[in-house]
Amino acid sequence: MPQKIIRATRRCERRVPMEVPVVLDGHRHLPGAESTFTENVSARGARVLTIRQWERNATVSFVSRSGEFRSKARVAYCQPLGGGFAIGVEFVEPQGRWVVESAN
Q: What's the chain's average pLDDT?
C-alpha cells in the first residue's frame, strides 16, 4: 500500500514580534469590546492575547487603538495561555494602514 505524504503548510509571511494595542469585539456569548495587545503581527493577520475563549472561524471586529486600521477578521485558532488565551486572526476586510505592509 502506498504511503501518504503529509506536507506541513507554512505561512507565506513572516511574523514580527510586536505589541500593538487593539480592540476586539463581536464575541458570540460575551458582549462588549475588549482592549488588548498583539503578540506578533504580519501583513495578513496577528496573534492576539485575550481573556475570552473564541471559537475557531468566528468573525471578530479588529481595530487598532490608534484608529488607523480596522478589519473584520477570522479566528484561525484559540489556544489556552496562562489565565487567558491567544488567538490567531486573519484579516478579511482590512481598511487603513496596518503596522506591517504586504510584500505583494
A: 90
The answer to whether the CB of 75 falls within 8 A of the CB of 88 is yes
d(CA 33, CA 13): 28
CATH class of the 16-96 domain in this structure: mainly beta
Boundaries of every domain in the chain: 16-96
DSSP secondary structure code for residue 66 in this structure: T
As a dihedral over the C-alpha atoms of residue 49, residue 55, residue 58, residue 62, rounded to 10 degrees, the angle is -10
Contact present, 59 and 23 (Cβ < 8 Å)? no
User: What 8-state DSSP symbol labels residue 9?
Assistant: -
Give every CB contact of residue 40 below 8 A, 6+ residues apart in sequence.
15, 16, 17, 18, 46, 47
Task: Kindly report, residue by residue over 15-34, the tens digit of the pLDDT.
Answer: 999 999 999 999 999 999 99
Nearest to 85 by CA among 36, 51, 37: 51
